[in-house]
């Protein structure tokens, strides 16, 4: 196939320089980021804007630097160059992640959940509450933790369980409960459905969608899961060639003539996900149902 240059849905000229007054429209803004480990350059001149209230899927081949980008945005990885602004605050100007005073305004679900194995689910959820709100009473902290556990779709009994006693899907939900502990505005999810069976993954997708809508979250979601992209992502950012080569809806990305994008979305798995989405929409249309009212979209 002839390779036309990829037209990103934004070009660097269209992205205003930072800093400028934060108007809330783009809670995450990344400009010209470079990350390298020794000679291994991961990102070069990477730009990205995340819109308020969207679920942005982030895709790319293994090792293209999706997790490193997430770590850069939340201040755990200091880039060699470039600027990162989150909710109007510069992350790159901070001396270390402790210096970032907006840390309580985001929640993170790391790959594998990253739960403390010696703490119960409730105690895990209480960790950020203890850190950021040491003044609240034990009783209130327990109550908030219990509420977040239920919000994440776990039964009340799960609060007293240890991570080793939970299934993979339950551990993800426990990690999600902890990510939601501080009522964040931004939610970062690193491969949330990895390792889940298809039914568990679909339920987790719907949980994320429901929480995003109910809590008015902006979600940065790293995934390899095509069903997740089709089901819940408003836009998708593609990382390749050390930068974000395109951001757009899936139809917009499908129109681009980039080999990785074409292979990813139009390969056998991509087509299967497209077909599944088309069948889902046709079933809704046949039932005269507005997709917004679909019970499958409402609960997990
Ligand atoms: N602390 C580190 N020290 C050295 N190299 C690192 C470090 N963290 C990440 N890397 C390297 O950076 C590259 C990008 O890693 P990253 O985990 O961001 O990839 P990814 O796109 O999330 O991959 P995957 O889809 O497989 O999870 C990899 O080659 C990885 O080995």
Features:
alpha/beta, Rossmann fold, six-stranded mixed beta sheet, four-stranded antiparallel beta sheet, 10 helices, disordered C terminus, ATP hydrolysis activity, ABC_transporter-like_ATP-bd
Furnish the topology, listing elements before pairings:
Layout lengths: L27 E10 L2 E11 L4 E6 L5 H8 L7 E6 L2 E2 L15 E4 L11 H12 L5 H14 L16 H12 L6 E5 L7 H18 L2 E5 L3 H7 L2 E6 L2 E6 L1 H5 L4 H8 L1 H19 L8 H4 L2
Parallel strand pairs: 3-8, 3-9, 6-7, 7-8
Antiparallel strand pairs: 1-2, 1-4, 4-5, 9-10
Helix pairs in contact: 2-3, 2-4, 3-4, 5-6, 6-9, 8-9
Bound molecules: adenosine-5'-triphosphate (ATP).
Adenosine-5'-triphosphate binds next to helix 1.
Can you put this structure into words, describing what you see?
It contains 10 helices and 10 strands. By secondary structure, the chain is an alpha/beta fold. The N and C termini lie far apart (about 40 Å). Helix 2 crosses helix 3, helix 5 (about 200-215) packs parallel to helix 6 (about 225-230) and helix 6 packs parallel to helix 9. About 35% of the residues lie in helices and about 20% in strands. A 6-stranded mixed beta sheet has the order 6-7-8-3-9-10, sandwiched between helices. It has a single domain (about 50-75, about 100-285), classed as P-loop containing nucleotide triphosphate hydrolases (Rossmann fold). Adenosine-5'-triphosphate binds near residues 37, 62 and 63.
């Amino acid at each position: 196939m002839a390779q036309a240059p990829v037209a990103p849905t934004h070009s660097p000229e269209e992205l205003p320089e930072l800093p400028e007054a934060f108007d809330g429209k783009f809670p995450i803004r990344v400009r010209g980021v470079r990350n390298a480990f020794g000679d291994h350059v991961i990102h070069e001149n990477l730009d990205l804007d995340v819109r308020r209230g969207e679920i942005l899927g982030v895709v790319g081949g293994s090792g293209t630097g999706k997790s490193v980008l997430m770590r850069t945005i939340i201040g755990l990885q200091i880039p060699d160059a470039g600027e990162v602004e989150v909710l109007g605050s510069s992350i790159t100007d901070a001396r270390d992640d402790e210096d970032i005073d907006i840390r309580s305004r985001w929640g993170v679900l790391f790959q594998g959940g990253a739960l403390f194995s010696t703490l119960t689910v409730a105690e895990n959820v209480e960790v950020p509450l203890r850190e950021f709100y040491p003044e609240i009473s034990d009783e209130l902290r327990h109550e908030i933790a219990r509420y977040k556990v239920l919000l994440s779709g776990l039964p009340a009994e799960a609060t007293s369980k240890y991570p080793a006693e939970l299934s993979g899907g339950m551990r993800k939900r426990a990690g999600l409960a902890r990510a939601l502990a501080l009522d964040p505005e931004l939610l970062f999810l690193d491969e949330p459905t990895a390792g889940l069976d298809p039914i568990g993954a679909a339920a987790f997708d719907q949980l994320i969608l429901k929480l995003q809508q109910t809590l008015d979250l902006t979600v940065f979601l790293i995934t390899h899961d095509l069903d997740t992209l089709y089901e819940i992502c408003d836009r998708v950012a593609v990382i390749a060639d050390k930068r974000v080569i395109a951001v757009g809806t899936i139809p917009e990305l499908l129109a681009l003539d980039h080999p990785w994008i074409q292979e990813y979305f139009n390969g056998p798995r991509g087509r299967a996900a497209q077909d599944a989405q088309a069948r889902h929409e046709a079933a809704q249309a046949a039932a005269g149902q507005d997709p917004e009212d679909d019970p499958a979209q409402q609960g997990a």
